[in-house]
Amino acid sequence: MKLKVRALMFLLCVTTICVLWRGYRPCSLPQEKSPCACERCLSEDDPWFMKRFNKSVEPFLSANYNLSEDAFNWLFLTVPPSPDVLESSPDRCRTCAVVGNSGNLRRSHYGPLIDFHDVIIRVNAGQIKGYEADVGTRTTHRVMYPESSMDLDNTTHLVLAPFKTAVWIYPKSTGPNSDSQQVMVLNPAFMRYVHDMWLEKKGYYPSTGFLALILALHMCDEVSVFGYGADSDGNWSHYWEKLNNKRLKTGAHPGDTEYRMIQELDEQQKLRFYTGF
């Protein structure tokens, strides 16, 4: 009997000590270390949750991540099976107008000439409304990097440049009757080809405008180029903006190299370059 009383008193003492010191030190038997400092961790064993949760799947793409073939194929389900382009033909002359955003388009009156082309490629957020006389009214393709995303009507193909560390959640045109078939994604191999072969690896990567220009050489039989280069004062500016920074340059893009290549292509009669002044 005395032994039972002693055992009971011992348990009561231990319980009391644990209660008093609970916030200071654990009194339970050692357990597996918790994966987080929260009161309850998401990754704690829960049959319903763990049936779906797979921590081994990396949420972000990195240079060291090996994308599985299944994931690669799933990704490209969002891309049209074939690009919507005019095919070459002996009885057709495919004409392209590539419209950059240079300030030298101001008062150029190139609008009707631009609109006369079969394919009209514009770059990033190039404005039309209010500038129709100089830049035209039609757009068949608009080439963009992620940070230049904008709403498009359902007659314009969105040409995505899948580059930089920004993320495209889902490539889309956002007009009232938008259609995923209007989306075209530039091949990263094409972008590297432009950088390596046409720019001889100058700069970090091609500008959107230069990508659009080389794209036009691949899509059309005759190419006309408008709105490239610095304005008449030597400033790199947009035709729809008032230039406040007189020292604005081309950043990571090799602007001078790109401009010289356009001039060379014009001299070789591979395109027509309309300088605007």
Provide an overview of this structure.
The protein is of the alpha/beta class. The chain has a domain at 92-274: sialyltransferase cstii, chain A (Alpha-Beta Complex), CATH 3.90.1480. 27% of the residues lie in helices and 10% in strands. It has 8 helices and 7 strands. The protein has helices at residues 2-20, 47-50, 69-75, 111-115, 132-135, 188-198, 208-219, 255-267, and strands at residues 95-99, 119-123, 141-144, 157-160, 183-185, 222-226, 272-274. It has a 7-stranded parallel sheet, with helices on one face. The longest helix has 19 residues, at 2-20. Mean pLDDT is 75; it is low at 1-5, 7-29 and 164-178. Its main location: Golgi. It holds the Pfam family Glyco_transf_29.
What structural keywords apply?
8 helices; sialyltransferase cstii, chain A; 277 residues; seven-stranded parallel sheet; alpha/beta
Number of strands: 7
Look at the structure and give the CATH class of the domain at 92-274: Alpha Beta
The CATH topology of the domain at 92-274 is sialyltransferase cstii, chain A
What structural class should be given to the helix and strand makeup?
Answer: alpha/beta
> What is the makeup of the main sheet?
7 strands, parallel
GO molecular function: beta-galactoside (CMP) alpha-2,3-sialyltransferase activity
Membrane topology: Single-pass type II membrane protein
Pfam family, one: Glyco_transf_29
Keywords: Disulfide bond, Glycoprotein, Glycosyltransferase, Golgi apparatus, Membrane, Signal, Signal-anchor, Transferase, Transmembrane, Transmembrane helix
